[in-house]
Amino acid sequence: MKHEWRKKEKNYYMPITKPEIVNMEKLKFIQIKGSGNPNSEEFSEKVGTLYSLAYAIKMMPKKGITPIGYFDYTVYPLEGIWDLKEESRNDEVFDKNNLVYTIMIRQPKFVNEGVFQEAIDIVKKKNKNILLDEVEFCTIDEGMCVQMMHIGPFDDEYKTFEVMKQFCEDNNLLIKNKAHREIYISDFRKTSQEKLKTVLRYMVESK
């Protein structure tokens, strides 16, 4: 039976529209770093590079390659860790060109460095995309987090962040760093701004 993250991992990917605490396990990702406006062509190319690898891994058995422990699954959603360049943190006007990001797609447990390198080789045979050399395979342990589902435009996320910050204050939780995670449940290329679903998440610790 296919592993579908929307059904099997609702606690990670389908939170309610109120802040909640979630304890994350260690998870595997393929990721690529960048900076600047997410509406740029460069950002789109990096997203495309990640998806080409994610689907190469999923489709390996059709290439005659079946990694140990392989199971069928739905490719996980795009995620991003977002921050601002240090020199722009105190700017009065928010400028998307000052953003720093790491975008990523989670990988199933059977994926390891060897499987990742095999996927790189598969994609390179089809596409000489130079961005492939910037992609990394990693394990991330977020631990305790506060998360909430944001529904609506990305530019309105600050309203949801304010609710989350107040929740942390009320529950004696300290946000561990200025960066935050976003998980794009909706396809933002096809979904209207008002209907976009985005999981917002802070890593936290007790005060």
UniProtKB/TrEMBL annotation:
Gene3D superfamilies named in the record: Regulatory factor, effector binding domain (3.20.80.10)
Listed InterPro entries: GyrI-like, GyrI-like_CCH_Lin2189-like, Reg_factor_effector_dom_sf
GyrI-like small molecule binding domain segment(s): 18-198
Domain of life (superkingdom): Bacteria
Record's protein name: GyrI-like domain-containing protein
Record organism: Romboutsia faecis
